[in-house]
């Protein structure tokens, strides 16, 4: 009797909990909570990276390879939330401070070279660094330090590089902390957006990321496609560009699985299965590429696979842009960019 | 006023407003052209339609365009690139071709807006002189359409990030200096986000001397003034953007600037979540109304000019461009979702494949 009473009370509280946020926005909220967890994972991954840099630089106990592994971990978690382009990540140019890319005019390299040659103390103080050019504050600058400068300088010969790297990591820690704390606090988070707009914001973020993949990330080099510069690939130095796209797509698939698919099912969309197959096919087409795509130059098989993946992803993008958005009455803004 | 009585009064006003304009539009059915930059199939175009919505012409552009200026005497149209591009096109309205491409000087790009002065017969375009990271960057390029669009001079804009500009009937250029510092190396980054200094500068267009700077009260310091219009009494109507978030409290983003003072337009509480972005502002002389678009929240709102009270609104996703029917003075609205329609929501163009860009024109 007591057990059944307890069960009743627990069920009642579960019922209340389930209904504590509007049923109408249940799926979007669920995805929001997953993103919150992803930001926490990113924050922790950066903390690990920071510890690793401290060990590498101060105690000289770990190798450059260990540092590289921690950096790759950081990339893994960053590229899982890279498609989120609203909320606190928009404050203070935070997104660009984490990763300024694409960089059509080669600003990062120019600014980075300046930092390395000047060796000013202000680059090694993370609060001062936060006031500097977004191009030298984040992940792309770390990649240059680890995969070019430290590789060249044989470990810890340069105290400046070490201090600059630590400064970047602390700067990232501030940004990730700020972002995560807002995502975990609904009262503050929903000052950025109304619940009813959450679906539109996630959806637009996903479309922007797919556009970025199609137009900038998924590329190849051969004699007919000279407009791309290998070093302008997203993570060319760490050869992580393909993994980055795969992580993006996994997160996008999660969005589809958690939000879009249930909404399509609920609204009796007749082509759910077809779309489901297409999105899985796109992910599979990426897996077929035997990366890294930094090695695609004149590799005919890889170029064919990249082109195929581009086609598959574009199909997904177009279906989301036209058919699915229309079916779910999701509005995609065109005239929304500021500065105009 | 409570929510219910507000909606009742709004409903009544909406009816009145629609009645006046609907009368005007139905009395006059003369044909006119609609000209708008569009995005279609991942490319940018200048598209021309007749007032029945049929496409007359579509010319491919190598970049996303922003505002356009008509040169009636020359039967030409100036199409200005959106920042940070550095070109404007001269479009021949007779031959329907691009007849000239004009580049900004090295180290400059356009901000997307310009104006033609009937008095000086010159074009004035807002520019970023990005060599300077301060107010020296705000510049107005001067071009002569009667000398093959040669650059004949420049003026300081007396502020950072000049956006839309107008000429008043007193020899002045009226410039909205948005106050946001940008650089083409960092296309979407706001370089002075914590210290935006926006103003409206009245500049004598012949001498280039600053006649007056209108600055906002301290409370409104975060506003970036972007779009403006002027009435015959030289009152300025300005629409702004804000980069803060809602929790800092509501700020009106549109104001009227008369000789005496600055007055902000009134927003009933139910309309205070408009995402801090105004896309276009127009003064509707015939009705003595002011109309503004809010593309982020999908609203177009109309205020009565005398008391700055809201009299009407409509919902349409991504509505941004506002143009005036050249015969009836009825406002027309364009949206990124492929529609151009009249204020009473009568569709003129509906094509989901076309994203109509921020600004468009309706011409005789």
Description:
The complex is a heterodimer of chains A (340) and B (364). Chain A has 340 residues and is mostly helical. Chain A has helices spanning 2-18, 26-59, 64-81, 94-98, 107-118, 126-129, 139-153, 159-184, 186-192, 198-217, 241-266, 272-288, 300-327. Chain A is 67% helix and 0% strand. In chain A, helix 3 runs parallel beside helix 11 (241-266) and helix 10 (198-217) runs antiparallel to helix 13. Chain A is globular, with a radius of gyration of 22 Å. Chain B contains one helix and 29 strands. Chain B starts with a helix and ends with a strand. In chain B, strands 1, 2, 3, 28 and 29 form a five-stranded antiparallel β-sheet that branches. In chain B, strands 4-5-6-7 form a four-stranded antiparallel β-sheet, with no helix packed on it. A four-stranded antiparallel β-sheet of chain B has the order 8-9-10-11, with no helix packed on it. Chain B is mainly beta. Helices cover 7% and strands 48% of the residues of chain B. At the A-B interface, helix 9 of A face loops of B.
Give the quaternary arrangement of the chains. heterodimer
Please provide the ordered H/E string of secondary-structure elements of chain B: HEEEEEEEEEEEEEEEEEEEEEEEEEEEEE
Tell me the number of strands of chain A. Answer: 0
Largest sheet of chain B: 5 strands, antiparallel
Number of helices of chain A: 13
Features of the shown structure:
heterodimer; A: 340 residues; mainly alpha; 13 helices; B: 364 residues; five-stranded antiparallel sheet; four-stranded antiparallel sheet; 1 helix; disordered N terminus
Question: Gist?
Answer:
The complex is a heterodimer of chains A (about 350) and B (about 375). Chain A is mainly α and about 350 residues long.
Layout: helices, strands, pairs:
The complex is a heterodimer of chains A (340) and B (364).
Chain A: H1 2-18, H2 26-59, H3 64-81, H4 94-98, H5 107-118, H6 126-129, H7 139-153, H8 159-184, H9 186-192, H10 198-217, H11 241-266, H12 272-288, H13 300-327
Helix pairs in contact in A: 2-3, 2-8, 2-11, 3-7, 3-11, 7-8, 10-11, 10-13, 11-12, 12-13
Chain B: H1 3-27, E1 33-40, E2 43-50, E3 55-61, E4 65-71, E5 76-81, E6 87-92, E7 97-103, E8 108-117, E9 122-129, E10 138-144, E11 150-156, E12 162-167, E13 172-177, E14 199-204, E15 210-215, E16 224-230, E17 236-241, E18 254-257, E19 262-264, E20 280-284, E21 289-294, E22 299-304, E23 310-315, E24 319-324, E25 331-335, E26 339-342, E27 347-350, E28 354-356, E29 361-363
């Amino acid at each position: 009797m007591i057990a059944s009473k307890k069960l009743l009370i627990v069920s009642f509280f579960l019922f209340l909990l389930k209904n504590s946020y509007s049923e109408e926005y249940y799926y979007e909220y669920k995805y929001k909570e997953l993103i919150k967890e992803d930001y926490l994972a990113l924050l922790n991954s950066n903390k690990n990276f920071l510890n690793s840099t401290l060990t590498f630089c101060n105690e000289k106990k770990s190798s450059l390879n260990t540092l590289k592994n921690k950096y790759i971990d950081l990339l893994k978690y960053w590229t899982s939330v890279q498609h989120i382009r609203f909320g606190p990540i928009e404050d203070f140019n935070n997104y660009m401070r984490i990763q300024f890319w694409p960089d059509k005019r080669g600003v990062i390299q120019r600014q980075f070279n300046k930092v390395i040659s000047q060796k000013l103390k202000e680059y090694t103080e993370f609060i001062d660094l936060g006031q500097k050019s977004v191009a030298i504050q984040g992940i792309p600058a770390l990649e240059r330090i680890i995969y070019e400068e430290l590789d060249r300088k044989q470990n810890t010969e340069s105290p400046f590089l070490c201090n600059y790297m630590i400064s970047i990591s602390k700067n990232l820690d501030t940004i990730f902390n700020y972002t995560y704390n807002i995502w975990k606090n609904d009262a503050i988070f929903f000052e950025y957006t109304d619940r009813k707009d959450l679906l539109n914001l996630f959806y637009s973020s996903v479309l922007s990321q797919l556009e970025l993949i199609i137009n900038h990330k998924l590329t190849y080099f051969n004699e007919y496609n000279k407009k791309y510069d290998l070093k302008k690939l997203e993570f060319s130095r760490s050869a992580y560009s393909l993994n980055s796209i795969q992580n993006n797509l996994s997160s996008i698939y999660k969005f589809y699985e958690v939000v879009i698919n249930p909404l399509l099912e609920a609204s009796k969309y007749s082509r759910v299965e077809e779309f489901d197959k297409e999105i899985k096919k796109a992910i599979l087409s990426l897996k077929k590429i035997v990366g890294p795509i930094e090695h695609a130059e004149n590799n005919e098989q890889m170029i064919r696979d990249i082109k195929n993946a581009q086609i598959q992803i574009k199909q997904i993008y177009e279906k989301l842009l036209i058919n699915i958005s229309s079916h779910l009455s999701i509005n995609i803004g065109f005239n929304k960019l500021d500065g105009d | 006023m409570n929510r219910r009585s507000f909606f009742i009064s709004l409903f009544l006003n909406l009816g009145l407003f629609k009645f006046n304009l609907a009368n005007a539009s139905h009395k006059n059915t003369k044909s006119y052209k609609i000209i708008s930059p569009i995005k279609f199939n991942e490319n940018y175009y200048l598209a021309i339609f007749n007032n029945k919505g049929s496409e007359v012409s579509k010319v491919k552009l190598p970049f996303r365009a922003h505002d356009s200026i008509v040169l009636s005497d020359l039967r030409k149209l100036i199409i200005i690139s959106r920042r940070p591009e550095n070109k404007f096109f001269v479009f021949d309205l007779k031959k329907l071709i691009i007849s000239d491409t004009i580049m900004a000087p090295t180290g400059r790009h356009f901000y997307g807006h310009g104006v033609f002065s009937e008095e000086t017969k010159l074009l004035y375009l807002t520019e970023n002189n990005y060599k300077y990271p301060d107010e020296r960057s705000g510049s107005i390029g001067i071009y002569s359409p009667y000398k093959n669009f040669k650059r004949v001079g420049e003026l300081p804009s007396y502020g950072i990030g000049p956006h839309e500009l107008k000429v008043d009937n007193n020899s002045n250029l009226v410039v909205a200096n948005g106050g946001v510092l940008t650089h083409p190396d960092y296309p979407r980054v706001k370089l002075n986000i914590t210290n935006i200094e926006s103003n409206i500068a009245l500049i004598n267009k012949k001498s280039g001397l600053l006649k007056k700077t209108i600055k906002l009260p301290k409370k409104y310091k975060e506003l970036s003034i972007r779009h403006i219009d002027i009435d015959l009494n030289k009152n300025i109507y300005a629409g702004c953007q804000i980069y803060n978030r809602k929790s800092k409290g509501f700020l009106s983003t549109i104001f009227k600037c008369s000789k005496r003072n600055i007055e902000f337009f009134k927003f009933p509480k139910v309309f205070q979540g408009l995402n801090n972005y105004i896309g276009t502002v127009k003064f509707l002389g015939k009705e003595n109304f002011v109309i503004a678009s809010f593309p982020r929240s999908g609203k177009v709102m109309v205020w009565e000019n005398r008391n700055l009270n809201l009299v009407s609104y409509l919902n349409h996703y991504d509505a941004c461009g506002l143009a005036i029917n050249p015969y009836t003075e009825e406002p027309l609205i364009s949206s990124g979702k492929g529609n151009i329609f009249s204020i009473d929501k009568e569709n003129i163009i509906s094509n989901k494949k076309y994203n109509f860009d921020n600004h468009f024109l309706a011409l005789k």
